[in-house]
């Protein structure tokens, strides 16, 4: 797995109906209506936000390589797989990301582990002064609270954490290469972590591939440590990492009003937001809630009609569907496509 | 009060370093003071020690959050628990908690923007402030990437306190001293200056013809001479490029700049401190808050924009007092490059008018700045001046500032091209005379082959590759 195979996978899913940039927004986890909707339409939740700081240049380079290898074609509007690309993508095994659940927060999880490990490593060898490898104040405070009153100098304590960590890594099912990367992102006394560049040259790989393997390993580790009895330490490190509300803050506020029975127009007025923003929020709500009352907005028959047409035409492009259903608004069409996700997966 | 005894008891040092005792005495006599001490000479002691004598708390205004966190960490490491940092990165609850118990802290570090928070001012009024310190005070008279409008507002804030003010800086010429006095509204400050000369550092300035020649020079140099060292470059791309070339040649080097992932940056710094890396190639983002005393070489492969900035970076070498070498490589096009960089944040007249227009129409400031094509720094500068001047005045200010920058660059260029002793020139720029030249002075005075420099006995630490579970065992047991 590397960035180029992931990109190929995304473009395949997007079915020639999105621009190249849609993939960048997806990987960065952009919280715009369009991206959130794409995630849903094209079944790309696992890849959402797996690389928040993805560099545009790197992304473009990767895409250019795919174009040069004639695996994809891209014009101003759309980007699609070539026949050759279609064959290539068959060999691709979807990595086990859970981007939708963690959205970049997995790095906080790791940051806490890294700082705790460093602290224990120093204390157990009799030194209490070191440069914290995590600069983030919030992580520092978290770890301080986590380790408060713990027998840091007792060798048994370090051993227990060591044993728990190894057990979790094995249980998570990550590859040996990933275990190696994980262990080498940890710092302790006399053992500094390695950068992605350094690991890439050791493993004869690319920095971006190492990065992606690392993030995937965190996404595989996190579900394992949900059990506090088996993983008391790691479970605490995972506190508040998984998103519990999948809505953006702003959408959450809209939801409150919506639940109180306000109309979309009222909400738009009360919140002093454009109608299109409120529409985005409604779509976001529908995306995240199976029981969302779609029939508030469109009838069952209409939904059925749109879905069969979409199937028949083999497209989810709003513009084409709009031609067929002049009486429906774009918003209604979007809503219909969104709630149907359950059905076709 | 026996200062010497307190020094021993609290800090474990038996002597003051030059300048420290004088500054401490001025402060204890409640005089305003501007202390100019070279980096690494121990400026922080100048307010820490008085803190233990004076009643009340010491308020330290510090320009960079990272620097502030670093200092607080250092003090905690040394056993001082009554120290706290207040900046806008704190959560609301945490900040409220600290503010409610502000008087319990002996040392309070704040970022300049905190001063404009009402609640902070209110809480501060309730406690006794024995001393106010402005760290890195030269920031007051700068613009460019480190321009801090909040810094210029400190004076307005300070005018309601009558505690003595201590301004600390590593480099200040007479213009900077004037700016500091004026903006901080200091009351006849005593200027305590310690010579900026670092006799253990030798200066070389080498003229070359192309970037390629620079690369070759650096490669040969690094393969034949000792680290640890820093190479300063003008761009992230160049820093990466050099790191790559040198890695290929087997050098333990990594690049460091703001474009790298946060965790990777911390890792690189730590590896450098632990001698797992011998060299760093970096933009000027590297160095602040890096405490490494055995740096043997600093190489500039671009033209710094001011002599002060140059000196600050060079000053990171040889803090242990042992010999160190500073080298500046120069090719004629560097002048244009640096000039371009320093002017890049300066909005031109049409941009400025466009921006001001949009503001008067009530549009969002950030959006307007973007539409007008202004950089973030450019916006900060303009906002500050627009708050207190008319548009035409601001245009004039921009011209002045930009001319000043250009003058600074001219001086740097003059230094690089001159046939005069580098040490003498640098010192004279800061109004100092060079009384005694060390044997290894500079490339103009003539440098013999420096023996220590070619001593490659420093063994880089190489950790063996071990399996993942072995590594975890090594770390945790
Ligand atoms: N009187 C002294 N004797 C010995 N070491 C000192 C003395 N004063 C300061 N130091 C040490 O010098 C180093 C640099 O001090 P610091 O205040 O960080 O320097 P600056 O802020 O001037 O760069 C610190 O490690 C400090 O402990
Ligand atoms: Zn000389």
From TrEMBL, chain A:
InterPro entries registered for this protein in UniProt: Helicase_HTH (IPR029491), YpbB-like (IPR008308)
Domain Helicase Helix-turn-helix, residue spans: 251-337
Descriptive protein name: Helix-turn-helix domain-containing protein
Source organism (scientific name): Sporosarcina highlanderae
Automatic annotation (TrEMBL), chain B:
SMART domains: DEXDc, HELICc
Record keyword DNA-binding present: yes
Superkingdom: Bacteria
Residues annotated as domain Helicase ATP-binding: 24-190
Pfam families associated with the record: DEAD (PF00270), Helicase_C (PF00271), RecQ_Zn_bind (PF16124)
InterPro entries: DEAD/DEAH_box_helicase_dom (IPR011545), DNA/RNA_helicase_DEAH_CS (IPR002464), DNA_helicase_ATP-dep_RecQ (IPR004589), Helicase_ATP-bd (IPR014001), Helicase_C-like (IPR001650), P-loop_NTPase (IPR027417), RecQ_Zn-bd (IPR032284)
Name recorded for this polypeptide: ATP-dependent DNA helicase RecQ
GO MF annotations, alphabetized: helicase activity
Entry annotated with the keyword Transmembrane: no
Ranges of residues in domain Helicase C-terminal: 217-374
Keyword annotations of the record: ATP-binding, DNA-binding, Helicase, Hydrolase, Nucleotide-binding
